[in-house]
Write a structure and sequence with these properties.
Layout (H helix, E strand, L loop, with lengths): L1 E2 L34 E6 L6 H17 L5 E6 L4 H13 L4 E4 L8 H9 L4 E4 L9 E5 L1 H16 L7 E5 L6 H14 L4 E6 L6 H15 L4 E6 L2 H13 L15 H9 L5 E4 L1 H17 L2 H7 L2 E5 L2 E9 L1 E4 L5 H5 L6 H4 L5 H6 L4
């Protein structure tokens, strides 16, 4: 459940947070702890390229900026293993880190670890995915809106033919609570407007699983009968497109994605992938680091200024939350999104295989 009035209407960019009165670490307060803090960062997997490439370094950079270079980030990646993440979590509790920022592999499985942190007096901030247990705050994107944007894009791409068009849905991992929100948002746009011919869950968001499911969908629905594919993220979209090519598709139908990975942005440029959902990693990671530091240091005014939304988990109601807006990235707005925000340069996107496509859309 989500409630979205949102501080983002006031602070639309991470770069503007200081002008909103929440970006400075010099505000006069009586902090519970000084700058020598340790933030424990637990990220879920390495298959999703954004976590190591963007989230970890952005959070590390912001913690250093907020603590005059004295704060540290203890980082662990679970490699898609809920068991390993629980072990990593317990170690951070044993090491007495000051706050834990966790992107859960399995939202339910992490609950006992969250409770251990609570018992030890260590605040826990759920990051990107809503963890169960007594968390102190939640920072993510409006994940139902992500699905709505993806579903709406498919309907728009199919146009007048949408009502009779067969769509295959590649949902994310059932262990990830965001998957249900993505799916809810997507089906709210697709139901009654297209024919959902087949749909699959994708264990641990693994592209190899998505590829196998796409092969099954092609066998069941027929290659030429698949009008579009809803793919919950970009790595799965790449696997879907590879399988469509392998099956002999002369034209790739509209395929959605999420995360705006470099490979996905290049596929959008070339026309192989119809769209991806751009979620500002800068805004999400920077805000999460700020919220965690402010929580530890007792900077309640800054903390409350960022946390304006409320969400519910199966174990907790009215969790203070920050839900960051999302954007549908297409050929038309690459320069205004990932290039403008410094995620990629034009040179990184427009390598030799994509140079002609970039020139065609005016990306230079």
């Amino acid at each position: 459940m989500r409630t979205v009035p949102s501080v983002m209407a006031v602070c639309a960019s991470a770069l503007l947070l200081s002008s909103c009165g929440v970006g400075s670490s010099d505000t006069a307060v009586s902090p519970r702890k000084g700058d020598d803090i340790t933030l424990g960062l637990l990220l879920p997997d390495r298959d999703t390229s954004r976590f190591d490439r963007f989230d970890h370094p952005l959070i590390k950079k912001e913690v250093a900026a907020l603590t005059h270079g004295k704060g540290k980030v203890a980082y662990a990646n679970a490699g898609a293993s809920a068991k390993r993440q629980s072990e990593q979590f317990r170690k951070m509790v044993a090491d007495k880190v000051d706050v834990i920022l966790v992107d859960a592999v399995d939202a339910a499985a992490i609950e006992p670890s969250v409770q251990k942190a609570k018992d030890a007096g260590i605040p826990v901030i759920a990051y990107d995915r809503l963890a169960q247990g007594p968390i102190d705050a939640y920072v993510s994107h409006d994940n139902e809106l992500v699905g709505e944007v993806q579903g709406r894009s498919i309907v728009e791409a199919l146009g007048d033919k949408a009502e009779t068009s067969k769509v295959v849905m590649m949902n994310g991992s059932p262990a990830d609570p965001n998957t249900a929100l993505f799916k809810k948002g997507a089906t709210s746009e697709l139901d009654g407007k297209v024919v959902i011919a087949k749909q699959y869950d994708t264990r641990e968001w693994l592209p190899s699983v998505a590829k196998a499911n796409m092969k099954a969908a092609i066998a069941s629905v027929g290659l030429n009968n698949i009008a579009a594919v809803y793919s919950a993220n970009d790595d799965m979209a790449g696997a879907v497109i590879d399988e469509l090519k392998k099956a002999g598709a002369s034209r790739i139908p509209p395929v959605t994605g999420q995360d705006a990975t470099l490979a996905a942005v290049q596929r959008v440029v070339s026309g192989e992938q119809y769209m991806t959902v751009y979620k500002s990693f800068l805004l999400e990671a920077t805000n999460a680091a700020q919220i965690a530091v402010y929580k530890v240091q007792g900077r309640d005014l800054q903390f409350d200024a960022l946390i304006r939304d409320k969400v519910n988990s199966p174990t907790q109601d009215d969790i203070p939350s920050l839900l960051v807006p999302v954007v549908a990235l297409t050929k038309d707005n690459i320069e205004q999104t990932v290039v403008k925000d410094g995620v990629y340069t034009v040179q990184q996107i427009c390598t030799a295989p994509y140079a002609a496509d970039c020139a065609e859309i005016g990306l230079k």
